[in-house]
Amino acid sequence: MSSRVTFDHWGVHGPIEIPAYAMARPFESRLSAVTRAIGAKSRLTVCTCSPQGSDGARCHYQLTLGRPVGDGYSVEVSVWIALVKPGEECGP
User: Fold this and answer.
1) Residue 58's pLDDT is what?
2) What is the dihedral of CA 65, 89, 30, 27, to 10 degrees?
3) Is the pLDDT of residue 79 over 70?
4) Residue 23 CA: distances (Å) to CA of 15, 69, 74, 78, 86
5) Mean confidence (pLDDT) of the chain
6) Which terminal CB of the chain, N or C, has fewer other CB atoms within 10 Å?
7) pTM of the shown model
8) CB atoms < 10 A from the CB of 79, how many?
9) Residue 6's closest CA among 34, 38, 28?
């Protein structure tokens, strides 16, 4: 059964549609569910997901998204996200 994952986002640099929430598949991390949902909604590939620490209650990450070009990606958007951490440490 899937579980709903809520998250905050801010600091969007570039044209992108951000979903209101993500649905985590069984055995999928909350972070993976959120990056998958953002990629699907925006039709972009998540190129990087960098941990940016915590404010005590939430884990912060900076994402860059882009389109495949040759052997790499053309980065088009960056966005910050925050996930509530339910008793677990922040990490990749």
Assistant:
1) 86
2) 130
3) yes
4) 23, 29, 27, 22, 16
5) 88
6) N
7) 0.86
8) 20
9) 34
